[in-house]
Amino acid sequence: MKETPSYGKNHKIDLAGMATSAVGLFAIIYGLIVKESHPHWSWFDGRVSGLLIGGVIVMIIFVLIEVRVADPMIDIQMFKRPHFLGTIIIAFALGSGIYAYNAFLTALMQNYIGYSAVQTGVRQLTISGWSLILGPVAGILSSRFSKKWMIVGSMVIGGIGFFAMAYAISPTVSFVELWPGMVLMGITNGMVNPLLNTAGMEGALPQEMGMVSGLLNVFRQFGTTVGVVGLA
């Protein structure tokens, strides 16, 4: 049996990159959380803008470190590839859209419509259940059709779902009115997620796959945070 080659042998841990990325992302995300918790505060309030600007500065320092070190935690050159950059943007859009909207749907169903936690969870399957159904389907179709256009088409479906949800929400909204938009959002989630991971890995070197996977998850989660604050 052929042994899998080791790509991390003799590589040093990028401690400076780990520290600056953690501090920078924490400052930005915490700044967004502070703004969400205090909606009456201005974006220019020092308690908000100080964290955001400080986080951006630290992230710039992080990029400068990654460019200079011999064994970077993230190879900045990957962002020059249009294919990879596109998957990162889609991951951010998915997080700031569907995942962020999901948080408000939970609050809407429990606090306004009056469903219990269990009833809300069952109705949320309208979105999450499609991942179980469409995951294998997306894998089969991706071997026959372009992943790029499948992702674009699925995102368009999700956009239609958002407009349907925005049109349906009112002081007297019911699940029946939310259901069509939730189905469309679920289809988008079920199709895009598996395609995004495989599309992001295409063209990546074996030693870059961990970076690609990590960055997709980071941008997806960061997009969720930005989306929740933006919708608040």
From TrEMBL:
Annotated InterPro entries: MFS, MFS_dom, MFS_trans_sf
PROSITE patterns, per the entry: MFS
Any one Gene Ontology molecular-function term assigned to this protein's record: transmembrane transporter activity
Transmembrane segments: 12-33, 48-70, 82-101, 121-142, 149-169
Residues annotated as domain Major facilitator superfamily (MFS) profile: 83-232
GO cellular component entries: plasma membrane
Cell compartments where the protein resides: Cell membrane
Membrane topology: Multi-pass membrane protein
Name of the protein this chain belongs to: Major facilitator superfamily (MFS) profile domain-containing protein
Taxonomic path: Bacteria, Bacillati, Bacillota, Bacilli, Lactobacillales
